[in-house]
Amino acid sequence: MGCQESTVSTKIPLPLGAIEEVEKLLNLQLISSRKLDLLLHRYSYSNFIPEKNFLKVCDALSINYQVTKHFYSLLKITDNGNNKELIFCSRKLCTLGIIYGSSSELEKVRLLFQNYDIDTSKVLNTYEISKLVQDVVFIVLEAIPLFAMHLYPFDSEIMCFIQKFNMAKEYVQDIIVNMLMNDSSEITYAAFLKSFKSFQVRSLINPKDLRKFCEKIDQRLANMKDVSHSRTKSINIRDFQADLEGSKSKSIKKSTVSVS
Which of UniProt's keywords are assigned here (predicted)? Predict the structure, then answer.
C-alpha cells in the first residue's frame, strides 16, 4: 500500500509545510548562527553538553526548551548515571544552530567548516566531512520529521515523508560527500566553499532544499529497475550522482553562495 493511498486526515494540509512549521517551533530563525555557536561552545565540555548547561543557553537566547524537549532528546548522547539529566552532543547542537540560525549563507558555510575542524588544521578529512554531512542529514531528514510525527502522530502524510527520507538519506549522504571530497583525502576551506556552488552541497545549509533533493532521489530510486525489490546500495553512486546532476542542470539554474 503506497503512501498516496492513505485516507487518514491530517491536521495540516501540506506535509512539507507542516515540517517547516515544526522547524519554526525551535525558535532559532531570529538568532544569529554565530551567537548560537559561541554560546554552545562556551557551555560545552569537549563534544558534550549536559542538560543543565544547555538550559543556560536556552535561557540566554529565550528558547522555550520545554516545548521542544522531545526534539532535543533526539540529539542526546546518553542519560547520565541517575537518568535525571540528558547529555547532548554539542557538535550536533552547534550544527543545528548554524543551519537554522539567522546568518548569511557565507557565514553558515564558514561556521560549519570550523565546527568540524576539531584539530584546527584548516582542512577537513574524509571522516570529518562524512560526520558533517551525516549530522546535517540526521537533523533535517530524521530528527525534525520525527519531532513533527511526535506533534502530529496521526498525520499519515508526514509518516509517508519519513519513509521516503529513510529510503533515500544514505544516498544523499554519499552523493554530497563525494561531491565535497572529489576523490581527495582532505579539503581546504577554499575548496569547501567552492563546492557550495552546487545545488546538492548547498542544500546542507537550506533544509527545505535538502528535503527536495532527498525526495528527488527517492523518486529516481522508485523508477529504477535495479531497486524493484529492495533499495539497497547496488546502484553505482557516481553514475546515480551524474544522472541527478545532469537532470538538475537542465531544469534549475544553480544558485551560488557569494564568496565576496
Answer: Calcium
Query: Which residue's C-alpha cell is 529504477?
Result: 224
Q: According to DSSP H, which parts of the chain are helical? A: 15-25, 33-42, 51-61, 69-73, 90-100, 105-116, 126-138, 144-151, 156-181, 189-195, 199-202, 207-223, 237-251
Tens digit of each residue's pLDDT (9 = 90 or more) over 42-84: 999 988 999 999 999 999 999 999 999 999 999 988 755 555 6
Q: In whole angstroms, what is the distance from residue 13 CA to residue 140 CA?
A: 20
Rounded CA gap, 140 and 1, in Å? 26
User: One-letter amino acid identity for 149?
Assistant: M
DSSP β-ladder status, 86-89 and 123-125 = unpaired
Taking the domains of the chain in order of start, what are their residue ranges?
15-251
Instruction: List the 86-89 sheet strands across, edge first.
Output: 48-50, 86-89, 76-79
DSSP 194: H
pTM for the whole structure: 0.82
Residue 237 φ then ψ, to 5°: -60, -40
List phi, psi (to 5°) of 73: -65, -25
Query: pLDDT tens-digit profile of 76-107?
Result: 887 555 556 789 999 999 999 999 999 999 99
Residues in the chain: 260
